[in-house]
Amino acid sequence: MISTLTVPLLSWFAQSRRDLPWRKEPRDPYRVWVSEVMLQQTRVDVVVPYYERFLARFPTLEALAAAELDDVLALWSGLGYYARARNLHRAAQSCGGELPRTAEALRALPGFGPYTAAAVASLAFNQDVALVDGNVARVLARVFKLSGDARPQAWKIAGELLPRGRSGQFNEALMELGATVCTPRAPDCARCPLRQACGGKDDPARYPAPRRRPARPLLRWKALALRRKDGAVLLQRRPAGPCSRASGTCLWSGRRESASTATSRIAAGSSRRSRTARSAFRSSPRGRAERRRAARCAGWRPKAWRRSASRPWRASPCARPA
Ligand code: SF4
Q1: pLDDT band at residue 241, thresholds of 50, 70 and 90?
Q2: Residues 270, 156: one domain?
Q3: Are 54 and 188 contained in the same domain?
Q4: Angle at 294 between CA 291 and CA 300, to 5 degrees
């Protein structure tokens, strides 16, 4: 089974792979890393201009490590999921001028999960280590007709399929196949190099089975903190009881800070899940949805939080009762 998959897959990849800026040989580990981080949750065509601007400004690991975080975030502005940029910057500063060469060592750096560590280790250093992202999980789920949660099974199968010494190419080929041929809604089985071996090609839509999402937690805000660039913190604990501007129980009541003095960014929140609480105020679709939900729970509705590269965080001066 291994050769019936590996040989046609690698042969197809050699002929059909897309010419992307981070695929220039020889691979630069720093560039591989930046591209993998940017590609998380983001389409290739969106990433390319960001990647090129980022690499023009921070061409090396040393340049990124020496940069101000604000400059990194400004170049990231619009890509979303800003924790990626913060972790990229922190990892550049903490890796000692050189990325470790193994997935195990990479995992010790900020922002390196199992996928990113395996991607950098295999693509840049050709370590024999498997990886599974959404594309790989989908391809393997279809080829092997995996039922239930495909991801854990896919990790095991990917490790067994790995051709020693060519792991980087194999991993990249599987990801490329999932991104360009074995796509979620319209797999092009007629031009797939794995069609001979694929068990699910007659009904690819069945695989992988849809994942059940766990119920999201209810957020109840106890306090919010706003921090200015100079380190000053604006903090007011919300009193118990229903929100009312008239009675002065609104968190923002009486707080009519101008945009220049009010907030540079949200520093912290307090809720049952502090990580979620912090992300609730980031400028992402998920953040906005959580913010609206949190606001409903707390009985008030913050109007808008915005951020751009040239202007600091801005908050509506006052929340209105829901
Ligand atoms: S044959 Fe079709 S379903 Fe199977 S891996 Fe290829 S594109 Fe996906």
Answers
A1: low
A2: no
A3: yes
A4: 95
Probe residue for ligand 1, chosen from 185, 191, 196, 198 as the CB with the greatest number of ligand atoms within 8 Å: 198
Tell me, yes or no, whether 36 and 140 share the same domain.
yes
Q: Among this protein's residues, is 176 annotated catalytic?
A: no
167 falls within a domain: yes
Average pLDDT taken over every residue of the chain: 78
Q: What percentage of the chain reaches a pLDDT higher than 90?
A: 61
**Ligand 1 nearest atom to the CA of residue 181, by list position:** 7
My answer on whether 194 and 235 are in the same domain is no
144, 179: one domain: yes
> What is the residue range of 167's domain?
2-206
Question: Quick one: 199 and 228 in the same domain?
Answer: no
Contact between 145 and 207 under an 8 Å Cβ cutoff? The reply is: yes
Q: What pLDDT score does 212 carry?
A: 79
- What lines the ligand 1 site, CB under 6 Å? 139, 142-143, 181-182, 187, 189, 192, 194-195, 198, 200-201, 204
Q: What tens digit of pLDDT does each residue of 42-91 get?
A: 999 999 999 999 999 999 999 999 999 999 999 999 998 999 999 999 99
Query: 40: closest CA among 90, 88, 108, 95?
Result: 88
Residue 156: give its domain's CATH number. Answer: 1.10.340.30
pTM of this structure:
0.69
Contacting residues for 20 by C-beta, under 8 A, at least 6 apart = 35, 44, 48
Q: Based on the fold, state whether residues 36 and 168 are members of the same structural domain.
A: yes
143-154 residue pLDDT tens: 999 998 999 999
Give the span between the Cα atoms of 225 and 144, in whole angstroms.
Answer: 50
In a domain, 183, yes or no: yes
- Distance, in Å, from the CA atom of 31 to the CA atom of 48, rounded to the nearest integer, reads 12
Give burial (CB, 10 Å; 0-12/13-18/19+) of 38. Answer: buried
pLDDT digits (tens, 9 = 90+) for 205-220: 999 998 777 776 554 4
- 227 and 144, same domain (yes or no): no
